[in-house]
Amino acid sequence: MSSIPDKYKELLHTAANDLKSILWSEREDDAKLVQKGLLLYRQGLVSKVRLENDSIVANVQDVTRVQVEVNLNFFQISSCSCPAEGICRHQLAAFFQVFSQISRVTEWVDRWRQPIQERRTAKTLGIQRAKDLLKTAGSTKPDYEQWKQAFQSSFASIMGDPKATKPYLVTELFQVYSRKIRASAPVEQEWKQLYQLIASIHSFQYLLKFSEEQAFALEDIQRYYQNLFYQLIDDIEDLVEKLNVHALPFAFDSFMEKLKDDTYLLITGESILEFESAHLYVILWTKLFRKKQWHEEELPKVSELTRKKETLPGLIAYIHQHVMLRKDEKALQTLQLLNEQATPFMIYWLEKLSSGKEWKRMGLYVDTFSTMVRPYIQTLHDHYARMDFTRVAIKTVGAYAKETKKHDLYEKILIQALPYSYRGYDEFLFDQGLYEKWCDLQGYIGFDISSIPTEKIRLLQKERPDVLLPLYHQSIQQHIEMKNRGNYREAVKQLKKLRTLYKKLKRPDDFQHFLELLLDKTKRLRAFHQECERGKLTHA
Fold first, then answer.
1. Residues 91 and 159 in one domain
2. Is residue 111 part of a domain?
3. The dihedral of CA 230, 231, 234, 240: what is its sign?
4. Count of domains in the chain?
5. Residues of the chain predicted below pLDDT 50
6. 48: phi > 0 → left, psi -120 to 50 → alpha, else beta; which?
């Protein structure tokens, strides 16, 4: 291949950098993919390489010969004649072949693998540091300030390593820190659980502050160690549940007072992970700090905080304290400031009111919630996240509708959540006997009538055959538009069922008129007309 034009040199370097973020060295499948691409390139199996239209075009000899086109502007839309989906080994082999003309492929691979290699090194160094710390550590006696000081010291010692300034090393070092903390726990079970709870809450705050001090990009936190925050929240919730099995000993009182005051830090400042901070605050102030007096003391603090500056954690804390103190009017007023941002927390408050069977209070929140569902769903970019949210929302509000018989609000939420609420709305309309609306829903979703459960079709054929007419009309049209024999046969089958429905409704002339119009409209579709003759809908 001749020398690479300057334009393509720049494109190749850009694509090489893009690949580092598209493929993750810590992901096993990606590591294997790069290894296989390297092998094909090093074996000299890439041929007929040319550069055109900002792309690499080449043949790669694998088990069979494949044709590859690598888009250097957007690697993800590259193509290959092999059956693999997404980026494949052949595309990488072709890319490495051309990239080798302007740079060393081994250097790119080494830089790409650097995070995983440094993580292994950090883990080894971290474990050794933890062992050194353990030589001087034993189980600690119950003392809140001493515990807190020990947590801070251990975190600073392990996470203060210069290597921790790289986001991809945080998980390994934090796990070492966590093992050190667990090893120093008191022996007595009750004190051990309290110790672990306090440690987890402070560790969450330390990790949050550490992330802000390092000025890590949110994308890097999400990619490399956001799961640590979620794991800490899960651990904290589990420990609170365990502690709540029995009444807390009086000896815990001073610890709870201090912990309560320290958790205020969760909602101060501008956290890079606002949702997670607010979520943990709400959990603690629902399940752990339950005394009415504590809520009354906390409310002025969060009120002053939100007066100075409105942040998501501060406003959620403000609303939550009003909810817990049954000051619903003020809580609902503040909710208007947040709109869809508060939607996940609304689920939490609705579930709390539902579990307490406070249906009257819950109705106020359901009414507000119904306006927040669609805007929130639109902020979720993942299909499964939209489905999960819809499922939880419908389940929560469904309990309210069942108890209060206020189906209008429930239906409003089902409509707001479409198409993700289709199954719930489908069952609701059918159970309520709202068959016209049910028919409209099927048309909106575009389901073929053959996919509707047989028992529903039979019931409607018996009770409301008129409701089925538009569904058959729509389905027949869709099958004809597919323009193949199989679909034509299915259209004829459905036409015969439609004819039966019109007869049952004593409207045979209407069917005949529809059929004549359809045959005239499709007169160029000979195969469809042949199927109509075979089905004895028409005569030759």
1. no
2. no
3. negative
4. 3
5. 130, 133-138
6. left
Its domain, for residue 530, covers 458-534
Q: Which helix (H) or strand (E) holds 52?
A: strand 46-52
What is the per-residue burial (b if ≥16 Cβ within 10 Å, else e) of 309-344?
eebbbbbbbbbbbbbbeeebebbbebbeebebbbbb
Q: Which two tokens stand for residue 246?
A: 């029995």
List all residues 6 or more positions away from 58 whose beta carbon is below 8 Å from its beta carbon. 46, 47, 48, 49, 50, 67, 68, 70, 94, 97, 98
Residue 163 is predicted with a pLDDT of 61
pLDDT in tens, 391-445: 999 999 999 999 999 999 999 999 999 999 999 999 999 999 999 999 999 888 8
The confidence score (pLDDT) of residue 135 equals 47
Confirm if 497 and 472 have CB atoms less than 8 A apart. Answer: yes
Q: Is residue 508 part of a domain?
A: yes
Tell me: the pLDDT tens digits for 69-95? 999 988 888 999 998 888 999 999 999
Q: Which two tokens stand for residue 239?
A: 């420990």
CB 158 within 8 A of CB 130: yes
